Each structure stands twice: as C-alpha cells, then as structure tokens.
Amino acid sequence: MYVWIWRHLPGPTAVRVVESLVLFLLVVALLFFVIFPWLEPYLPFDRAGV
Amino acid sequence: MSDTQTAEVPPIHQRTGGDTVRTVVRGVGQLLMTLGIVVLLFVVYEVYVTDIFGHQKQAEATTEVDQVWASSEVGSTSTVVVDDPDQLVTDPRQRTPNYQPLLGEGFAKLYIPAFGADYVFTVVEGTDPDDLYIGPGHYANTQLPGQEGNFAIAGHRVSKGSPFNDLGLLASCDAVVVETQDDWFVYRVMPMEEEVANWGSTPRAHCDSVGVQSGIFDGVYGREITVPADYDQVLPVPHSASTEVPAGAQRLITLTTCHPQFSDLERMIIHGVLVKSYSKSAGFLPPELGES
C-alpha cells in the first residue's frame, strides 16, 4: 500500500517526502476531528455518570 | 482459490508465486503497523486533544455565566464594601435559587481549594456526553446547590478537561465550595469509611461541622467505589432508592467520576455535607477558599 502510494507521488524524492508528510497529517486530522469524535461514545473509556 | 481461473487469464506481468506471497505478507504487515499507529493516535486524542477542546468549551461556558451573573447584579450600587465573613453568613433555609439552569449551560462554579487556588470549574446542567465535554455536569433530576437533598455532579477523570482527575486525593473535611448567582455554599467531604471507628477521638482540622453519618444516612462515606449502575448515590439519601427529599434531610454534594483512572469499569463517588453558606458581596471571597 505504502509502496503503491510512494510510486504514484509526483516529483523528485525530496518533494515526495513533503507530500507524504502532508498526506499523513491529513489522515491524522481526519482521525482527530471526524473519526475519533464519532467513535468515542461507543468505547468504554470515559463514561463518568451513574 | 481456483487455479483453473488464473490459468485462463493471460499473464500481463511475469509474477512468480514468491512475489504474490511477498506482496500479501507485506500488505498484512503494513496493515498491522497502521492499526497500531491508529490506536496510539487514539490515546493521544483521548488524553491530550480532547483536553484542549474541553478547556475551550469550559472557557466559553465560564464567560457566559460571568456575563449572566454580572447582568443580574441589581444591588451593586452600594458603595459600602462588606467583606467580613461573619456578616455575610446566611441560613441556607432562607436562600432560594433565583435562577433556572438550562441544559448545557453553566449555572455554578466549583472550587476545591485542596487542589490549588486556581482550581475552579464552571458546572453545567446535564450529564450527557456533550454537557460533560464542557465541564462538570449537574444531574438534572437532583437538587440545586444549598438545597435539602443532593447536589450531584458528574465529571470526567481523564480527557475533556479532566476536571475530576484528582478526586482520589480528597481527604475528609476538605472544602468543596460552590458559587451560584447569589450565594457561596461551603461543603466538606464526609468521614472516610476507615476513619469512622475513631472519628471522635482523633483531632482533625476543619472538621467541626462534619460528623459520622447516622440514621437514614448511615453508611454514607466521603469516598465510595461503586458500580456504574449505582444511581442511588446521587439521590437525596444516598443508598436509598427514593427520589423524595425526606423531612429534615441534609444538604449534600455528590461528585461522581470514572474509576480506576483510564477506565470506566467502576465509579468513584465523593459525598460532602453543607457546613456554611455566605451571600455574595463584591470583593468578598469565602475564607475557606484559602485552605490548601
């Protein structure tokens, strides 16, 4: 998967490194702002009420 | 897997069996590493990122409640500053709440001097996940600060501002101070279960008005660890399933949070009892806030 992405990134190696970093940060942002907030209520970590 | 099917398709690339195995193994390995990183990121999210969001929401709620309180100060034209605690002591029986808590909005502030002079959280109405993200939330069916019965609040232990992370450090007789629109209410943590036996014979600071519980309140302690379904803990008489406030009931505060830390298999409950109340006055802070 990562090899496939690397092959399809345009530009020389240095540019590809920057591009992959941007891709990684995009995925992290998607997780932090969309997926984790949605997932959290279903997980048994922080329910505080009785 | 059907060998005949692949044999009929003319091969585009010359791939050996070893290539396929390598690709599959590499794919599984990358998938597992990715999942591991996602799990680690979730820990970062839960412990740090939600704290940032929670602090922002808490700051907004505090600003709002400050504005509401500022706009309700009708008698503040007096130039005489009363800051003598004895003159401001009130009888809680004479005080009726002059406000209406709205779900998700702040209506009180919670101070625990034992956690430091900067420990203050705006308490919102309601205990839904959205409410508790803002700060400690008041169980909507329980009483308001200072009233007979139980002023019960839930709060997160880890994540979302972590207001109740240190409840395990509270000792008996520590002050839990609640500020409302017009009043200060000073509660103190009840005796712990292990202290009950020699409560009377051990001198303790700040414990003048705090005693071992008896009668219908027998068995209510300063800290209890219980199961998540133990809703009776927040009722007027903890451990008794009635929502009725009996005649002569005490004025209690109850704090609930998850237990143990980083889990929510159990709940930690803190019970306190009202020992004093003051009416608010410009420039006056209850002396109990200075305890540490």
Number of helices of chain B: 4
**Overall form of chain A:** rod-shaped
The 3D shape of chain B can be described as elongated
Taking strands numbered 1, 2, ... along the chain, how are they ordered across the largest sheet of chain B? Answer: 1-2-3-4-8-9-6-5
Q: How many strands, which pairing sense, and closed or not: the largest β-sheet of chain A?
A: none
Number of helices of chain A: 2
Average pLDDT of chain A, to the nearest integer?
88
Order of helical and strand elements of chain A: HH
Low-confidence stretches of chain B: none
**Using CB atoms under 8 Å apart, which protein chain pair has the greatest interface?**
A-B, 17 and 39 residues
Short description:
The complex is a heterodimer of chains A (50) and B (292). Chain A has helices at 2-8, 13-39. Chain A has 50 residues and is mainly alpha-helical.
Protein architecture, described:
- The complex is a heterodimer of chains A (50) and B (292).
- Chain A has helices at 2-8, 13-39.
- In chain A, 68% of the residues lie in helices and 0% in strands.
- Chain A is built from 2 helices and no strands.
- Chain B has 292 residues and is α+β, with helices and mostly antiparallel strands.
- Chain B has 4 helices and 9 strands, in the order αααββαβββββββ.
- The radius of gyration of chain B is 27 Å and the shape is elongated.
- The interface between A and B is medium-sized, with 17 and 39 residues.
